[in-house]
Each structure stands twice: as C-alpha cells, then as structure tokens.
C-alpha cells in the first residue's frame, strides 16, 4: 500500500492519457489513490472516470487539485507545452506543497528546462521514466528509473512502486533520462537484429515459431524477446510502441551522443532503418514492423540502399 499523508493517501493527478498514461492511471486507481486526470484529447478519460477518477478541465488545474502530478506525454514539445506553457501545470502551482513526477521519454535538455521551471515555481521534481510497454505496466512488470532529490524519491517510493514495482534510484540530476535512452538503444537494436535473424532463418526454410523458440531458450533469450515472440508468430504488428515513437527516441539518443562526442554507428543505421520502415507505411505500427521492411526487400530485391 502506498504511503499515507496524515492518515490518507495523497491526491494524484495524471496528465497525458496516451497508452502509457492510461495504464499509469489504472495502476494508481487500483492502489487506492484518489486520482484526477487531464488530457488534450477529449473522451480518453471516460473509463477512468467511470472507475472513480475526477476529470480536470485543464492541465493547469492539476497542481491545484492534487498534491502530486504524474505526467506521461509524447515528446519534448508536449512536455514543454503541458508543464511550462502559459496554461501549463506549473502556471498555477502551489509553491512548496506539491511534487511533479515526469515519466515521459524526453531529452535531457527538455528535462533540465522542466527542472528549472519547477524550481522557480517552488515545485519538487522527480524524473521517473518507465521501461516497459502499457501491458507491462498493467501486469506489474514494468521498471522505473528515478533521479532527483534523494529524499523526495524516498518519500514517493511506494507511489512509484504502485505504478512499476521495480524502482531504481540513480542520482540527483538527469541520470534517469540517460538510463532510459541507453535502454532504447538496446531495445531498438535487439528488435532489428531479431528481425534479421528471423528473415535469414525463414529464407533458409526454418519455421518462424521454431526459430523464436530456439532464440528464446538460447543464451540470447530475454524477457523482451519473450514478449515480442508471440505477436511475431502471428505477424501481429498492433502497436505497443510505434515505429515513429521509436524513431523519436533514437533521435534523442543520437542528439545526446552528439552532445557528448560519442559515435554510435549501429544506432545511426537503426535510425535510417526506422525511417525507411515508417516511409513504407508502418509509422503507426509497432516498431517490430522492422521485420516487414526486411521481408519486403527479400520479396522484391533491388540495389543496396545507400
């Protein structure tokens, strides 16, 4: 059970009800928190309201209504607008009495801007990006990486654990943002290599289901390979995380690498492959559609892409 404040659970507002935001709000409701919700697109909160959540008229009302605001938004632009904008979350914040927990995958630079804005508004700020898709959040198998003031992280450990039971504190600054981007390198890269392995095996007459079983039980098997295997067996590319969103994350990775003077040749190539997949009409499909791009090239071979 989450920590109580003066004998009660603290009120929490969830801003951003995309696939991840919905899952986060559901977990908090299930844990017994009083939850309020706000989203730019009307109607996405209907089921949450039916379950007892309060609908907010605007994101600016979040820190007026609740002691804690959890944000889950698409990108840097959405975070800046929702948090730092003229009618954003920090605009009407109560100084000294509230906390912002930002769970999106965004750049270090944007997170620093939010930290500065929160400090000016007198709002405590935690970076807490999630690792895992909405299904993992709902099943309690997601992980959360946290950075910010250590005492603030400890104070909200049980709340964070209600969303993602595996919580790891990484430091006082932007370490959690970096850790999330590091993981995206591995997740995107693993998916491309898995796609290449399957195409090679199938082109030589091996059955895909058998290949996935072999991979899953080998030394390279992982939780990630396991939960990607079943949709791949069915050729199901329904999105848990879209190709366009993965390309956005890879752009953040490459920007950070450039700022640090680090060369990432494979990740640079992965970015091109994701762009090619998106341009082939799979931008809104799951990023495992990297396999569809490869299969299309097998079926219609042509000159090597430069």
Helical proportion, percent range: 40-55%
Task: Kindly report the CATH topology of the largest domain.
Answer: Rossmann fold
What is the CA-atom radius of gyration, in angstroms?
Answer: 20 Å
Structural class: alpha/beta
Largest sheet data: 6 strands, parallel
Physical arrangement of strands within the biggest beta sheet = 3-2-1-4-5-6
Can you give the mean pLDDT? 94
Secondary-structure map with pairings?
Layout: E1 12-15, H1 19-30, E2 35-38, H2 46-50, E3 54-55, H3 62-65, E4 68-71, H4 76-84, E5 99-102, H5 108-121, E6 124-127, E7 130-131, H6 134-139, E8 143-147, H7 150-155, H8 157-163, E9 166-171, H9 175-203, H10 208-216, H11 223-233, H12 243-259, H13 265-282, H14 290-299
Parallel strand pairs: 1-2, 1-4, 2-3, 4-5, 5-6, 8-9
Antiparallel strand pairs: 7-8
Helix pairs in contact: 4-5, 9-12, 9-14, 10-11, 12-13
Task: Tell me what the structure shows.
Helix content is 51%, strand content 11%. With 306 residues, it is α/β, with parallel strands linked by helices. A 6-stranded parallel β-sheet has the order 3-2-1-4-5-6, sandwiched between helices. Strands 7-8-9 form a 3-stranded mixed β-sheet, sandwiched between helices. Helix 9 crosses helix 12 and helix 9 runs parallel beside helix 14. It is globular.
């Amino acid at each position: 059970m989450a920590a109580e404040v003066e004998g009660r659970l603290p009120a929490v507002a969830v801003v951003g009800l995309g696939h991840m935001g919905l899952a986060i709000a559901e977990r908090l409701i299930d844990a017994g928190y009083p939850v309020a919700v706000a989203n730019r697109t009307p109607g996405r909160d209907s089921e949450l309201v039916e379950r007892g959540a309060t609908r907010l008229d605007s994101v600016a009302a979040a820190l007026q209504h609740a002691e804690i605001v959890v944000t889950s938004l698409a990108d840097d632009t959405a975070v800046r607008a929702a948090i730092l904008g003229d009618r954003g979350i920090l605009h009407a914040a109560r100084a000294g009495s509230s906390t912002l927990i930002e769970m999106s995958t965004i750049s270090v630079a944007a997170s620093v801007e939010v930290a500065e804005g929160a400090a000016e508004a007198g709002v405590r700020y935690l970076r807490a990006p999630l690792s895992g898709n909405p299904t993992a959040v709902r099943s309690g198998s997601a992980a959360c990486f946290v950075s910010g003031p250590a005492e603030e992280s400890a104070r909200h450990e049980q709340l964070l654990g209600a969303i993602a039971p595996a919580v790891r504190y990484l430091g006082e600054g932007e370490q959690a943002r970096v850790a999330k981007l590091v993981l995206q390198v591995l997740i995107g890269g693993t998916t491309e290599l898995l796609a290449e392995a399957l195409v090679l095996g199938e082109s030589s007459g091996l059955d895909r289901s058998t290949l996935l079983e072999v991979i899953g039980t080998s030394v390279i098997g992982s939780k990630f390979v396991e939960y990607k295997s079943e949709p791949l067996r069915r050729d199901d590319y329904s999105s848990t995380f879209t190709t366009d969103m993965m390309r956005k994350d890879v752009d953040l990775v490459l920007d950070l690498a450039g700022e640090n003077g680090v060369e990432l040749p494979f990740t640079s190539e992965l970015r091109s492959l994701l762009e090619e997949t998106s341009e082939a009409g799979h931008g809104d499909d799951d990023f495992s559609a990297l396999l569809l791009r490869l299969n299309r090239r097998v079926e219609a071979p042509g000159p090597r892409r430069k």
